[in-house]
Amino acid sequence: MNITTFDFKDIPQFSDTDKAYTLGDKNLRPFYKYDVTLEVFEDVIKNKKFEAEQRNVLVKELEMQYEDVEASEATLQNIQRLKAANCYTVVTAHQPNLFTGPLYSIYKIISTINLAEKLAKKYPKQQFVPIFWTGGEDHDFEEVNHLNLFGNRLIWEDEQGGPVGKYSVDSLRTVLDQTKEILGDGAYAKEVADKLEAFYGNATQYSEAVKHFLNWIFGAYGLVIVNANTAGFKRQMIPLFKDELLHQPSKPIIEQTIQDLEAAGYQQQAYAREINLFYLSPNKRSRIVKQGDSYEVLDTDIRFSEAEILKTLKEHPENFSPNVVLRPLFQESILPNLAYIGGGGEIAYWLERKTQFEHYQVPFPMLIRRCSVLWIPKGMTKLMSKLNIQVEQLFEDTHHLLKQYVLDHTEEELSLQEELESLNKVFECILTKAKRVDPALEPGVLGQQVQMQKAVENLEQRLIRAEKKKNETSMQRIQKLKDNLFPKNGLQERYDNFLAFYSRYGRTFLDTLKANLDVLDKKFVVIED
Question: Which pTM value belongs to this model?
Fold first, then answer.
């Protein structure tokens, strides 16, 4: 494998906020607590307070969640390590996308595992556990019910409603069979297909299938998977949830932060509501709103007085579900966590939370941008060699790449830049004469100049198109290259699925990623087979 890295600033597909945070834009500095360096973790550790009783709850919940899991010794040891006062976590989180979803979910987890190992070497007196937080409470089924596999978009059709993690998997059979058929009969393909069948074909709930599959992929590295949708975890959130219900502090705090971010030139990511809690009922996850002195659960007949909703919160905290505004607080309240590893969009909404954390006196974690990767299979590497296209050119717009290839490989002079410069000089002379005769002629001359410039530019494009036809085979190959590595003109990691790569490479895919991803390097990694 050949490994190349690029600075984030050179990746046009990344958003301005993503680049700004990763590259340390001073305008964003008020919105996060820690600079992202290995040495700064010393301060993060000092500032993290996590009581013994919280650790007991955490370990007890995890032990119950892993009762039916064929966990590795590394994972089981990590769960027990969490009892110790010197043990901390580093966390990534993601919705439970179908069969792991886009590749970046894999890269997030590898980033987190490697960071935990790196911290253990730097701080040998401490212990560090990599955590994957499954977003099983999310009810936006359309965001998780599909995957893209070898150019096929596979969709899980279902209308159960409510938190996705609680879905029955009965309706998964069709898409499961389609996936197995597409994977084919290769040794690695059969291995992963058998695991899909074992975990997704026999689970009682979708969240269980996700947990077992991720454990099979990452268990050897000691990853611990947390499902926070339990009464035990949520009982710790009763004071915060109660404050949200009674006083609604989050909305004004976050709105002020968003105003400050917008003043600094950055856009809003998440919308804070008056009450940032959902209520869970069978097959529903519905917003809680306050109407006068009562609380209503939208799209249901459920109504509470203030006393009734507080009583329900005390007796059944598992019925309350934080939205995106409160989820980070939930995570940081129930884990001895030091850092959150996320994508550019996630980091952007975490930047809106710092003042909210300060209000609740919850330590704000270090925010670390996950690793980004482009994996170039052997066939595409050979095609690049034939076309003499370099890795850095792949990030260019397809039209620009095609045009530049034609310009670089034609024997004719296709650029009309010199002619355009000559034309402009002619018009400068015409404009000078026209202004001497009548200054009112100037707009008309300038208008004619613009028209002639466009005409020359159009002629240049016609020359390039004609040359492209002469290089039609190469044009088709470049288009194939871009379609494979940048599906729908986007990054591969946001589109392609893990199964496509595991079915080709097996564990070598994971081992290669693990050997080459360092989240503190702040580089885009290209891996060429």
Answer: 0.88
